[in-house]
Design goal:
Blueprint: H1 2-5, H2 8-13, H3 15-25, E1 29-35, H4 42-63, E2 67-75, E3 78-85, H5 96-107, E4 111-115, E5 122-129
Parallel strand pairs: 1-2
Antiparallel strand pairs: 2-3, 3-5, 4-5
Length: 131
């Protein structure tokens, strides 16, 4: 079952390629800004990829956005991942998808925040250790 949900591109070509694949497959425009000099370890890259996949999927499914922006960068041994959409907002951080993401991020001693006022926009942001 894991092969159906795990992004094989992540193993084959790295996080940047996996995120570009997510962007290409989305039904709305997704821009990816990737500013990592080195690949992070597999666990961190996997969680970062799942954050982006879930946030993009949720936005498309629930928020009717016209544009989604993904940004990945690192500073001082921390990776920062953000997904912002211009949809209708109102995302529930306690919902099963976002709650599951928060647990994955926390398992790596990271943090996840969701800001999604009614009317939008929505921002899902994760901070992960990468050193």
């Amino acid at each position: 079952m894991a092969w159906r949900v795990y992004p094989t591109t992540l193993d084959e070509a790295g996080l940047r390629a996996a995120l570009e694949t997510v962007a290409e497959r989305a039904s709305v425009s997704v821009g990816v800004e990737y500013d990592l000099v080195e690949e992070s370890d597999q666990a961190v890259a996997t969680v970062a990829c799942f954050v982006v996949c879930e946030a993009v999927t949720n936005a498309v499914k629930h928020a009717a956005p016209t544009r989604i922006s993904v940004a990945v960068g690192a500073e001082e041994q921390r990776m920062y991942v953000s997904v912002r959409d211009d949809g209708c907002g109102g995302a529930n951080a306690a919902g099963s998808g976002l709650f599951g993401l928060a647990r994955r991020v926390a398992a790596l001693d990271g943090s996840l925040s969701v800001v999604s006022p009614p009317g939008g926009p929505t921002l899902v942001a994760a901070e992960l250790p990468c050193g």
